[in-house]
Target: PEP-CTERM protein-sorting domain-containing protein
Amino acid sequence: MKLSTLFAGCLFASVAAMPAAAHQIVYTTSLDGPSEAPPNISPGTGTAKITVDFDLVTMRVEESFSGLQGNVTASHIHCCTAVPGAGTIGVATTLPTFTDFPSGVTSGTYDRTFDMTDASSYNPAFVTANGSVGGAFNALVAGLDGGTAYANIHTNIFPAGEIRGFLAPIPEPEAYAMLLAGLGMIGAVARRRRG
Model:
């Protein structure tokens, strides 16, 4: 198989995936005490799902949690640690907690969409550190993409955080389609070389 045919096939696979390119990225994590820094023995668990919409410049926060030892005092996203999946860092999102987040409870759910062009969606120190609201948005997305941002639920028994988890993007279906197309091209080249 000629190199130009292989190149054309790869180009076709890339172009075919382009219309499906999303303007949203979804990030998820599981929340637990052992993921805290320092780790704790809380039996509490939870999940966080963050959906960033780049057309609307919004961030939807969905969290659920149960079994906490303490009563909730705050929840927010911290960003951006020096090492992916480790360490601690200051709060990036609104202070002292997400707007209307359940407080004084040991279990609950939360679902709210934030306007990420509004400075009130961020910790003012995070905006200052990144030069502007736009800079803060870009830094937060980079932290989410790089695994250096984490969701954290704080309680009265664990003021530094009872359960947390580092957020990671969910691979999109078109990423799998491109992977399969690439593997198909490699298989075709291997068959032709053997034959």
Q: What stands out?
A: The radius of gyration is 21 Å. Confidence is low (pLDDT under 50) at residues 14-20, 173-177.
